[in-house]
Amino acid sequence: MNRSIRISALSVLTLFAGLFSAQANHHKDGHADRVFEYRVYTVNPGKMPNLLARFRDHTCGIFERLGAENIGYWVEMEPADGEEPKLHYIIAHPSKEASTEFWAAFRVDAEWKAASEASTADGKIVKKVDKTFMAPTDFSAIK
């Protein structure tokens, strides 16, 4: 990911941070139990509409049902020359351990498997997934 895209994505997070007021339990060292998972999906050419439809119609609801909180979803407005736009999103988990359990449940979820199979009938959608786990600072507007 190039520097300008990373800065833009973090700017988006900062912009939307004030919209959320959920509080986390903090340890004495300031570390929060709640974690935020930032993901970036690089898609195959022409497949962004398929990916967005899958998230809109299936994935976001499955995430919530399985215990993740949908924080926000964004598509790059100005992708690098010659590149497809990427989908950036943030979900929250009660803890890092909960995120591990969440993804294990997600991978075997029958609704997810059906949605994935249907959406990839015309070819693979996602080329690459990058992920980062983040903990809020003690001065973050979103915790």
Summarize the structure.
With 143 residues, the chain is an alpha+beta fold.
Structural class: alpha+beta
Q: What ranges have pLDDT less than 50 throughout 5 or more consecutive residues?
A: 14-31
Q: What is the number of helices?
A: 4
Query: How is the biggest beta sheet arranged?
Result: 4 strands, antiparallel
> Can you name the CATH architecture?
2-Layer Sandwich
Would you count the extended β strands for me? Answer: 4
Q: What is the residue-averaged pLDDT?
A: 84
CATH topology: Alpha-Beta Plaits
Task: Give the class-level CATH name.
Answer: Alpha Beta
The amount of helix comes to 25-40%
The general outline is: globular
Number of domains: 1
In whole angstroms, how far apart are the ends? 25 Å
Strand content: 15-25%
